[in-house]
Amino acid sequence: MMNPFEKRICPYCMSYISKKTVKYYCECGQEAVQAGILKKLKCKDENCTCHLYHTKCAGCSNELPAGILDYNGYLRFSLIGVSGAGKSNFLTAMIHEMRRNSAERWVISHMNAETFREYSKNEEKMFVNHEPVPATHPGAIIPQQWSISDTQNSFMGKIPIYSLTIFDGAGEDEEHVAPVISKCIQGSKTLVILFDPLNIRQIQNNMNADIYRWSMTGNLNDHPDAMITSLTNYIRKCLQLPPSQKIKKDVAIVFTKIDTLKNDFENSAVMQESPHMTAGGFVEQDSVEVDNLIRNWLKKNGQDAFLGVINKNFYPERVRFFGVSSIGNPPVAERKFGVITPHRVLDPLLWMMYRENIIPEKTKHLEGGK
Ligand SMILES: Nc1nc2c(ncn2[C@@H]2O[C@H](COP(=O)(O)OP(=O)(O)OP(=O)(O)O)[C@@H](O)[C@H]2O)c(=O)[nH]1
Ligand SMILES: [Mg+2]
Ligand SMILES: [Zn+2]
Ligand SMILES: [Zn+2]
């Protein structure tokens, strides 16, 4: 459950918001004020008949999602990674999977029209046209805002609702520190760093050339440890942290496109279906197994330096490695996907929910048993 002292922040300008600081507006454009003992909202115009009010942030004047001050918890994360790492396809597949699972327990809903517009455009590309989501325009960071309701856990008739704010920018944006991105990174509870394993040259050499080409949009970034160093330097600049201090955030390091690594991971846990949703919580044991498999895979491929950079910059107990595939299978042609079966795309989000005590720890369901 949520910490009652947790501060809420505006998803647009990241300033703190509370019932006292937000501004209320009437549908007609006039300011609205709270009146009477019940603090009911009333338009300043006595004759107004709108009776429809909006809440705006006093800092940036953006309209705040309805009910944002009453949610039980807040999850906020930024997707970070070079251009072509797979951020936007991952985000689309993640929300798609959450919506698909919604019937069971968690109901995910958009909090504003912009979020739904952006998501449905990308979802159509991916799941209807079977094409990758287009590259994100530099400078165009619009936070996506979703709410997650826990329908099986009502307390005195009230269903807990959590807000989920996600920032997905363009990889190019991570080269210069712009105020908007600094704020997103500062305001994130978790940093989700996406890493495309195809950037390791050894992998390229052992892979079908077509699949490699169809899965890559950016240039080969041959020094993953240097790339991760640049990313951490960038995060530090955004947080105004000196190099001597570790970054105090949870970090999910997500290996994307693992559909191309079936020969490497064979039947190990990374390639098995995610057990968390079925178990109704977070199967820590499975997640640790996947984390180990990916770390060992990095070592086997000569990337000890990558792990070194992670250890140097983050707190080890706050780091978790994940392996996902947004499409489940390699592309079938240039800019063309076949059947789409997202693989383990909810694992990082479920880890965050577990860290926030929103979902419990579970043990793996045994074959055939309950
Ligand atoms: N094989 C495979 N390829 C993928 C997968 N996800 C993305 N790709 C490929 O990677 C390319 C880049 O993915 P994006 O999601 O656009 O990457 P991004 O990180 O959002 O890139 P920018 O918006 O430019 O920063 C896509 O066009 C696909 O060709 C995946 O799960 N498997
Ligand atoms: Mg993108
Ligand atoms: Zn604001
Ligand atoms: Zn009015």
Kindly list the characteristics that best describe this protein.
alpha/beta; two-stranded antiparallel ribbon; 370 residues; Rossmann fold; binds zinc ion; binds guanosine-5'-triphosphate; 11 helices
Describe this structure in words.
The chain has 370 residues and is of the alpha/beta class. The protein has 11 helices and 13 strands. The strands form 4 sheets. The chain has a 7-stranded mixed β-sheet, with helices on both faces. The chain has a two-stranded antiparallel ribbon with strand order 1-2. The longest helix is centred in the C-terminal third of the chain and has 17 residues, at 284-300. The relative contact order is 0.13. The model has no long low-confidence stretch (mean pLDDT 89). The chain binds guanosine-5'-triphosphate, magnesium ion (MG) and zinc ion (2 copies). Guanosine-5'-triphosphate binds at residues 81, 83-89, 132-133, 135-136, 170-171, 215, 217, 256-257, 259-260, 325-327, 330-331.
